[in-house]
Amino acid sequence: MLMKRILATVIAASLIAASPAGAEVRAGFPDVAPDSWYYDAVTVLTEMKIIEGFPSGNFEPEQKLTVAQFIKLLNTVVLDEPETEPPDSKYFGWADGYYYAALGCGVIADGEFDVRNLDTAITRYDMSLLLARAVGGVLEADTLILPDVTDGITDIASVPALYLDAVKVVYGAGLVSGYPNGSFGGDKTLSRAEGATVILRLIDPAERTLISRDLPEYQPPETPAKREFVPEDTLFIGDSLTHGLYLYGKMRTANYLYSTGMTVFKAPTESFTSPSGGSVTLATALKKRKYNAVYILLGINELGSSLDKYAAAYKTLIELVQKAQPDAEIYVTSILPVSKARSENGGGHTRARVLEHNERLRGLAEQTGTVYADVFSVFADKENYLPSSYTWDGVHLNTPQYVTWAEYLRAGD
């Protein structure tokens, strides 16, 4: 596979270098004009037999690129050869071999796409996700992106958490550029011209744009390491959402401290309620027994407060738990998403505030040596909202979703 990548880069460079100064290199398609922004990409990739046109003789540059077609392009450039037979021995289309090769390399996650429906147009978000995985997992690039690499993207705040790191990678590497208005436009579908341009930038560093000429290392979202989840040795500290987890999550043997309206500002001193019905302060509860794991979920009631004050109070709370339970693994739980209707209804419960607070919590977990438990991603849709079918008020979960939450915890993720 390494030789394949080297060969592809050499061929691309030789094709460009072999054209005499002033000579016109034709793409061979009547609908690809020499002055079009994608002309070079189509020309080079056609000569390399990476892409091809239609029986009509046209390239159709504005036609949407499908998931299958993009997977094939990636496979041709950086992945192993296609599987001759899918693992389940059932063929659904011409792209199955490419799909399973990408699945085997980790470029595609299991269940991420329906192998029976790979002819769906691929979005810029999904393209970025697959491209970033190819960069980090297959090409094994080891350079890092700059912290402010996406400052120029006007819609960066609306990028779903699932795609954020991938967007940073492909944008920072100059593999994918934004639109003239500064937006990334991840929900838009990828055209054949755009796909050709991305692949050319991947194999020829001289074609890359924007921030960097080097491929950065892909940083996947952090998740806790696999572990044995023992409810009896686990304590959950939180507000009404934690109460819901106790009532409906089917984990009654775990330990809970909850209080409706509880915040990080009140948690160190005010009393919580326990399943037994009694009231107890956090300090007292932490002295009663040793825990293997402690989950903290506080933040939905603090979204309208100062982010800096919230983080400072949360850190104080973490330190209190660490001192009382030095042998416990402490989990800083992300704030759950809110529904689109709730976010747009005014007040502090907005998608933007949830994302800001969760980003601060992720950094706080790293700073304090605790684990960031990304429950947000379990429930967020592609727009980073809580689906309306998951909630009765835009914030609290319906009963089945508490069971989903408990299953996530039992899986050790």
Q: Total helix count?
A: 14
H-E order: HHHHHHHEHEEEHEHEHHEHH
Shape type: elongated
Cα-atom Rg, whole angstroms? 25 Å
Q: Total number of β-strand segments?
A: 7
Strand content: 5-15%
| Helix content bin | 25-40%
Low-confidence stretches: 1-26, 140-147, 210-221
**Chain-averaged pLDDT:** 81
Describe this protein's structure.
By secondary structure, the chain is an alpha/beta fold. The chain has two domains: 2-207, no CATH class; 231-410, 3-Layer(aba) Sandwich (Rossmann fold), CATH 3.40.50.1110. It has 14 helices and seven strands. The strands form two sheets. A five-stranded parallel β-sheet has the order 2-1-5-6-7, sandwiched between helices. A two-stranded antiparallel ribbon has the order 3-4. Helix 8 (240-248) links the parallel strand 1 and strand 2 (255-258). Helix 3 runs parallel beside helix 5. The protein is elongated and about 80 Å long.
Write the layout of secondary structure elements.
Blueprint: H1 2-17, H2 39-47, H3 67-78, H4 96-105, H5 124-138, H6 161-172, H7 192-203, E1 234-238, H8 240-248, E2 255-258, E3 271-273, E4 279-281, H9 282-288, E5 293-297, H10 307-324, E6 329-333, H11 340-343, H12 351-368, E7 371-373, H13 376-379, H14 399-410
Parallel strand pairs: 1-2, 1-5, 5-6, 6-7
Antiparallel strand pairs: 3-4
Helix pairs in contact: 2-7, 3-4, 3-5, 5-6, 10-12
Question: What keywords describe this structure?
Answer:
413 residues; alpha/beta; Rossmann fold; two-stranded antiparallel sheet; 14 helices; elongated; disordered N terminus
